[in-house]
Amino acid sequence: MIAFLTRTRQKGRMDLTDWLAWGWAILGTLVVAIPVAWAVISSLKTEAEINSFPPALVPRAAQTITVEGQAKPLSVWVRKAADGTEQTVALVRRIGLSATVLNPAKPQETFPVPVSELSQLKAFHLQWSNYTEPLKQFNFLRYLWNTVFVTVVATALTLFLNSLTAFALSKYRFAGRNAVFALILSTMMIPLSVIMVPAFMVIVGLNLADNLWGVILSTVSTPTGVFLLRQYMLTIPDDLIEAARVDAASEFRIYWRIVLPLCAPALAVLAIFSVIWRWNDFLWPLIVLSSPDNYTLQIGLNALQGQFNVQWHYILAMTVVTLLPVTVVFLFLQKYITEGVASSGVK
Amino acid sequence: MSAPASVAPRAVARGERVGNGLDAVMRVVEAPMAALQRLIGVARIPYVFILPNMVLFTIFVFVPVGLAVAYAFTGGTNLLIWDRPYVGLENFKALLDCGNYLEPSTCRYNLFWTAVHNTWWYTLLNTLGTLFFALVTALVLNRLTWGRGFFRAVFFYPVLLSPVVVGLVWQWFLAREGLLNGFLTEWFDTRIIFLLEVGWSRVWVVYVSIWFHMGFYMLIILAGLQAIPRDIYEAAQIDGTSQWRQFWCLTLPLLTPNLLVVTVLLLIRSVQVFDEAWVLTNGGGPGTANTFIVQFIYQTAFSPDLRLYGLASAASVLMGVALLVLTLSQLWLAKKAEV
User: Fold this and answer.
1) Contact A308, B183 (CB under 8 A)
2) Are residues A297 and A224 part of one domain?
3) Strands, E, within A115-269: which ranges?
4) Across-strand partners of A103?
5) Which residues contact residue A136 at a Cβ distance below 8 angstroms, ignoring those fewer than 6 apart?
6) Contact flag A261-B15 (C-beta cutoff 8 Å)
7) Same domain, A213 and A301
8) Residues on chain B touching A21 (C-beta within 8 angstroms)
9) Residue from A241, A54, A280, A298 nearest A289 by CA
């Protein structure tokens, strides 16, 4: 095993550069993973734990115990007396620097101790209600549904319309074809940040402001999608299309029945990216959507952070819910995603 | 990527299995499309195919581009262009009205110039920082003989997160009660409220951007590294060239075109910084220490108490010109890299 791990191209010897390379890779992995892992861990802490400092590395919660004769469950503490003996006690009440405790074994006798002798007993505990509460308290399910709707509809339309355009651009000769292709590619150079004011006016003019369709329609046509699919379709032999024409298939039928199935790999890459773009989109929905009922996850999360600045336990739980789908997609499709990026420069 | 050539019958069969629901929808589209084809002829059918996409591009890209310039010459707070009075170069004059361009407080719109300065420094540091880390990581991954796929995936992972998630994750990490302050207290007995201090918050905005986007540029550089033929290095090794010299005299020169493209791409993206910095710093704070140009445009146009669409558009146009110069130089460099 060790021999396998330390195998390098220089006959089994690790030289200094190899050590440095491994050090960089492992350190980098920690730098990437720790903030995300910390958010996930923190999202499972109770509100009291999340606000306590210094932070604990594992989610814990105060232990409680139900004692006969006491209405509420009592918190459990360890008392370290001046003579060094330790004793588990339940806290009844606390006034200033003095606390009233009892021995759970003898619940009738309460006795006072100084607070300085007490330390709270905590146990491992995952606060799943951080995840379920926001569903009830805030419009979280609504945001989730809106995001799923935008993502699915926009991706379906993107695949359909972009592949149709790519088909026309790659398999037909017609006047203005190159001009159209150049025009589409030129839109890559126009970032949203430059045209956001007039684009919003167009949305208002079409009566799509504060409407999910305003977010969907304006992002359906992507130059990257057209480009990716066109390049792929160019490699499909024209003979196939000619053969279908001989069989009197309509042009749309050729597109749907022959070209599209052959493009499955390219469509898959575009679909993955399309889903991730829509799921993560922020600036444009922020401009278009104004009422909380129409918020997507990202906008809702951003708004909640401003609104409930101290409720980090909820914010982090929702952050985890937001990053989870992308993470799962990446776990399964990371090879296609990284290769798609490397070969086409899409992001 | 290229399509397999000889699978047509199978592929058609696969197409039939794509999904009966989808297929039913397409069958509904197919009949009118076939009728349309009979009506206008095969030669005109490609125009039908590109029509929906071109209509959307026109409405949401071409029209806004034209309007962006038109807006910049109008004033008032009405959104609809026909309700807006023509003011000539007034918006540009207002933005550029400055006693000393290096000192934002002497400008009429000092927030704009603060944003320009912040964006300039951010762009410089982010470009250099990302380039450095992406290059070193790509070199490291290219060297690893084992686990390369795993580390490539790890370093790329942040790229796929949303800006809001990245902003919140890091805000929590750097918070008063955050993990970093936990370690600082443990080891140095001190606590820093990072995001409320001007200097620290700027450092962290750049750092988080590098953390967020580095993987993308790393992949592009890695692809460039892997395109360098192996036998060059073998020849160098036979000649007894040291690894250090191999890097400076072989790798770096061969990688230069690739790095230039990455640099310009980084510049283009850095100038447009907004999302993650906005979330991380709660809207550009502390004060205006992390207010960037896009945030200025967004706030000037969409803050309920401002709604200065003309001024925002003028700022957009100025930024657009800068981006255009960068984009054209990128195209030029990419073309040169191919030759």
Assistant:
1) no
2) yes
3) 118-120, 122-124
4) A106
5) none
6) yes
7) yes
8) 139-140, 143-144
9) A298
